[in-house]
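Predict the assembly for these two chains.
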Amino acid sequence: MAFTVTSKMLANGAAELSLFGELDASVANEFKMAVEKAAADNAKQLILNMKDLEFMSSAGLRVLVFAKQKMGYDVDIYVIAAQGPVRDTIEMTGFHHSVIMQDAYSAL
Amino acid sequence: MLSTIAERVDFLKHSLLFSDTSPEILEEIASKLDDVEFQADEIIFKSGDPGDCLYFIKDGEVKLYNDDRNIAHLGAYDIIGEMALLDSSPQMATVTSIEKTSLLRLDRASFDKLIHERIEVAQGIIHILSNRLRLQDQELDETRNSLEKVILPLGIALSTEKNLDRLVERILLEAKKLCNADAGTMYLITPEKQLKFSIMITDSLNIALGGTTGEEIPFAPIPLIDEKTGQLNNHNVSTYVANTGRSINIPDIYHAKDFDFSGTMAFDQRTGYRSTSSLTVPLDNHLGEVIGVLQLFNAQDLTKKIIPFSAYQQLVVESLASQAAVSLNTQELLRRQEILVKIERDVQVARQIQVDFLPDVLPQPKGWEIVSYFQPARQVAGDFYDAFMIDERRVGFVIADVCDKGVGAALFMALTRSLIRAFSWINKLSLSDNQVTSPVSQMLDCIELGLDPVGLTNEYIALTHSKMSMFVTLFFGMLDPEIGQLTYVNAGHNPPVLLDSTGKVKARLTLTGPAVGLMPNITYTIGQSTIEPGDTLFLFTDGVPESHNPESKLFTEKRMLDLLSKPTPSCAVLLTNIVNELDDFTSNINPFDDVTMLALRRKLE
């Protein structure tokens, strides 16, 4: 299944990226560009909605690492509704320690 | 404006068709003619239209063309449409007025009657047709001559030219010479899909830029795709030709409506030049790819009067461009091949360096068997394994997977591997022997001292190499072989499997901290386990469960665990079994990911 990412800015200054489909090395750059845009827009938080993300390879995880570095360590990253293999990938590498994992977005 | 009979007779007298016709008959014919007028750029008839009348050009100029190929320009006293009338076939070409043109039209019925009744008119037609044939014969002869004497030898000469600037320059100069054109430009298409000015020459202005002149061309490359719309940019004649692969022959660019010549006109304004006729042809490399565009301006006759490019010249320049494209393509291929050979050499060096980073032999403590398997997906890998003696007693071992493949990952692998080893040595040096009672206490001591090799490596990579957004999943173990005690850090790596002698899974050594490089300021928890006699510790990278078969199905961890559950006489046999199964499963297609395994077995006493 193809990958798409859509972005919007929320009223509280958070950027929300919704990820659909399968995120692997061939499409990771689209995700990366969306993160760069959010960083350029000075987003106060980054919300990654992964409800419809079916697969994420290490290339996708690399963009998460990139996001953490690009947004600055004081910008919280929320990973929302990550499921099955996507959640496994994040948890197995221990990345869930550096983001906020939630089932539904609720700003901390 | 309507003409009188007398004016028409006077006009018809000068037509080749009626050179032998008496004034009385001319008067009769004149009475059957209609006056028609076309403004500039109007279509008189189209190729494929039924041939239902004959036209005499009284005044003005028209062009005959097919698709994009100019066939001829005709003017006063020429006739058009006669071929279709004679053999009742559709029109063979489209005819468009170049400027305001007045014609006299004779319909089919009158024409047929005339041909049947007046032998001298029929003779006139034959006269005109034979003249045309002779002209066409001449053109064919010239074309043949050009092909034999100019194009083919030039093609051979071009194929030996190794310098790109000289080659491009030569192509342009020869094309200019063939058309006696005053000016010309060669563009090459860049990998970024832009038309880059390669060389520009205008004889009458004494301008020569680019090529071997060493003079910079001050014009920016022209994008082939409109950045705003994402559509093909077909506004300029050069980009249109590059995008479509079709030649465009324009008698006067100031009357051209289909293309934007504002750049050329601005050049004219600045220099006092008058760009008039223009011929633009693609350089097609015979693989259906246009690799450049050749544009000529202002064809001249022998008196240096500017004339349109003829159909014949177009044909010859197209042949030349075609030869040139082959030479350019060959040269580009040679250049790429050279780069490839160089890269290949670098990769071989990288591979050798990487192989040097893997241990030549694995430590084999008494009563233990340690074996490894390593199959990179590419020539250089992102996976690695290591095993080494930390001191006389303890064995350190590592399996790791860098989150990428290729040379970048290999460099990262080399960095990580060296840091782990170096920080392990520091441990050994920092703690005096009497401090060390067991590996557990040693590792705990190290952490208290801030000397955990994995934590230090993470700190270094997360702080020093964060720009790369690279990370490494890694399992680092420290084993006391005498008592089978294992302390470890699992930094986000696939959990190794601890099996008993029957193949039953005793434990999975799950993560004790995040992958190395994800974030700084991490304190890794230390895991502990005991390897009993007969137990096997199996470590792997995700290349094992995630190997693909030709149908893109995954090997899966389940299949791997099934294989592990079968008792084997040695670890070597165990790894061989897995490798054989993987080979069967993937049908030996090129692996997508590196496959690495490490197994440690404590032999039964």
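Chain A is about 35% helix and 35% strand. The helical segments of chain A are 28-40, 58-71, 84-92.
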